Automatic annotation (TrEMBL):
Belongs to the ABC transporter superfamily. NCBIfam families: PRK11650.1. It comes from Aquamicrobium soli. This is ABC transporter ATP-binding protein. InterPro entries: AAA+_ATPase, ABC_transporter-like_ATP-bd, ABC_transporter-like_CS, ABC_transpr_MalK-like, ABC_transpr_MalK/UgpC-like, Mo/tungstate-bd_C_term_dom, NA-bd_OB-fold, OB_MalK-like. GO terms for molecular function: ATP binding. It comes from the Bacteria. SMART domains: AAA. Keywords: ATP-binding, Nucleotide-binding, Transport. Residues 4-234 form the ABC transporter domain. PANTHER family: BLL2173 PROTEIN, MALTODEXTRIN IMPORT ATP-BINDING PROTEIN MSMX.
Length: 354
């Protein structure tokens, strides 16, 4: 059982505590994405898992074995780096099989494993080439092949697609996920790209400033963010936010400058409570009876859809609507949203209400 468990992990560099009290359990064969902005601690946590950084405090278990003091080569993990880390003077075959050669695996066995990995990754025609003769996607496949032949219990990916163009990233996301499904290996994947997280993960661990903000499936963190920070980070375009007050004369209602929206009964907020209301751009529609009144600033066509940027009181708002809904800059616009599509957060704590 290739489980990974972090118990009250902390990391200190000099006098600076960059991570504190990280507790997380990763199940066997699970694909977990560590997501967050630069400097949040996700790569540090991955490097501690690999043994490339020491654990200052807490316990780290791989396959139920405490590995705090275990050498990286003895942890039965394989890591794929952002910069591929290929040997430029070695051909693809030798790059993939290098760790096996160091381990003095018989040459016939090395060839068998390298050819197996190359076939899965569509690298067979390139085994006699050098890394400089490959595209970025092919180099990343070579790095993945090198991890595969080790037959590790845990795969670690450190932002492996950040050097690729958008189309190739989308293709490689699919390949990595298919590889995971085929091999059934426990996978921990680090990225700052929420699209990678949403499309690849079984479970997302969203981090900020060395702490875990929320753990859940992609649907859970998107549909029920537990804080304003999570709601703002997940989703593109970002969620719209309005600061205002809840009124509860009969049906509860949110009121702010330029905004008056009915809320679902039993929403959990009290009359007079200061709250932050969040609405995803895709949940807004243009309607004459809409409770959000503003002025169009800009319309951006993004293919089948259009992003309408509007100024609502003191708030900047974005709505994603059909491209036929174009409005001229400076014209008035009314936006509507269904009560069950709004998210409420306490204005003081920024934690989810209800």
């Amino acid at each position: 059982m290739a489980t990974v468990e972090y118990k009250n992990i902390a990391k200190v560099f000099g006098n600076v505590e960059v991570m504190r009290d990280i507790s997380l359990s990763i199940a066997d064969r699970e694909f977990v994405v560590l997501l967050g902005p630069s400097g949040c601690g996700k790569t540090t946590l991955l490097r501690m898992t690999a043994g490339l950084e020491t654990v200052t405090k807490g316990d780290l278990f791989i396959a139920d074995k405490r590995v705090n003091d275990v050498h990286p080569r003895d942890r039965n993990i394989a890591m794929v780096f952002q910069n591929y880390a290929l040997y430029p003077t070695m051909k693809v075959f030798d790059n993939i099989g290098f760790s096996l050669e160091v381990a003095k695996v018989p040459k016939a066995e090395i060839r068998k494993k390298v050819e197996w990995a190359a076939e899965i990754l569509n690298l067979t025609p390139y085994l006699d080439r050098y890394p400089k003769e490959l595209s970025g996607g092919q180099r990343q496949r070579v790095a993945m092949g090198r991890a595969m032949v080790r037959e590790a219990e845990v795969f670690l990916f450190d932002e492996p697609l950040s050097n690729l163009d958008a189309k190739l990233r989308a293709h490689m996301r699919l390949e990595i996920r298919q590889l995971h499904n085929r091999l059934g290996t426990t996978t921990i994947y680090v990225t700052h790209d929420q699209i990678e997280a949403m499309t690849m993960a079984d479970k997302i661990v969203l981090m900020h400033a060395g702490k875990i903000m929320q753990i859940g499936t992609p649907d859970e963190v998107y549909e029920r963010p537990n804080s304003k920070y999570v709601a703002d980070f997940i989703g593109s375009p970002s969620m719209n936010f309005f600061e205002g007050t809840v009124e509860a004369a009969g049906v509860p209602r949110f009121v702010a400058e330029g905004v008056s929206i009915d809320l679902s009964p039993g929403v959990g907020a009290k009359a007079g409570q200061k709250v932050i209301l969040g609405v995803r751009p895709n949940d807004l529609g243009i309607s004459d009876a809409g409770g959000i009144k503003g002025e169009v600033v800009l319309c951006e066509t993004t293919g089948a859809d259009m992003q309408v940027h509007a100024r609502v009181g003191a708030f900047e708002t974005v709505a994603v609507v059909p491209r036929g809904e174009r409005r001229a800059p400076g014209s008035p616009v009314s936006l509507s949203v269904q009560p069950d599509k709004v998210h409420l957060f306490d204005a003081a704590t920024e934690q989810r209400i209800g």
